[in-house]
Amino acid sequence: MGDGNVGQEFLATQVQLLEAGDTAGLSQRYAEDAEFVRLDKVVRGRTGIKELFDAYLEQKPNIEQVEAVQITDDTVLYQAREQLDGREVWAVGTLVFVDGQVWRQSVAFIDR
């Protein structure tokens, strides 16, 4: 990742792709052997990640604001305010990058 601007740009593009419903585009930002961990499931590979994003979009997410971001060389830690199925939640997660693609991501949705 390098600097904070790259991490911020990655998150901004991630939100834009979600808002556009482009789950295929989202999944291409992940390494072929990527893993996405949530408290309710773990998926591996681009196909599984695309399906996870498809299911996420069915919850009608509204990402209100990215509240906090911490960026190191290869890791982004973020906290965002959003709504899922009309429920107000915090999304707290991490993205770990290898060769410019997401290799691992985790996220937990916590009621606000």
TrEMBL record:
<dbReference type="Pfam" id="PF12680">
    <property type="entry name" value="SnoaL_2"/>
</dbReference>
<dbReference type="InterPro" id="IPR032710">
    <property type="entry name" value="NTF2-like_dom_sf"/>
</dbReference>
<protein>
    <recommendedName>
        <fullName>SnoaL-like domain-containing protein</fullName>
    </recommendedName>
</protein>
<feature type="domain" description="SnoaL-like">
    <location>
        <begin position="15"/>
        <end position="104"/>
    </location>
</feature>
<dbReference type="InterPro" id="IPR037401">
    <property type="entry name" value="SnoaL-like"/>
</dbReference>
